[in-house]
Protein: ATP synthase subunit a
Amino acid sequence: MMTDLFSSFDPSLIQTSSNTQSLNTLLIWLANLIPIFAIQSFLWIAPTRTSQILSVPMTIMNDQMSRTLGKSIKGMTSIISPLFLFLILTNWTGLIPYVLPASSHLLFTLSFGLPLWLALMISSAKNSISSFTAALLPEGAPDWLNPFLTLAETISIMVRPATLSFRLAANMSAGHIVLALMGSYIISLLLIQNISLFIILMPAHMGYILFEVAMGMIQAFIFCLLLSMYSEDHSH
Structure:
């Protein structure tokens, strides 16, 4: 018996045979290894068709980084561009049945958002501590308002990794929960032989799958875009 909605993605809680449970568990592990296997194509000397396709999102993120001050931070572009590709592939693994993408877990998203944000903060303070602290106070503010503005700006900077990670995890979880509910409802219509309503809802379900494909790319882009925008506050 499933305890909550997230349990529908856990094959160990589904009442099936032991062989089917083992197969579903193996499928989950293989699905989460897909991004790693896909990125391995870049290790070939001659570019393959797969590597050429995978290089498109990295080129897009390289262009985005070139429009920000993050391009002057050593190694920033080399981290954000592969991360963009990795998040896209990770988000798409959720389209596999009974697989909840790793990016829907807060621990996974925090493992990327928190270290990168902290690295930017440490690098900025090490580069110029005066510029780093001066950025906490907006220009042209009245003197009596300075303590409150400094406190508000400090809080907004401190919550950045949490909001960054929560946004990706929440959006990916919500999207795939809706996808699972639609799939369950359509299957129930087929079982009760309600063919007319099944024919009506099936195109909507297929359209939502395409929407989730686009959403996986958009959420990965927003995650990396915000990181590139955070680099704008880096002291130079």
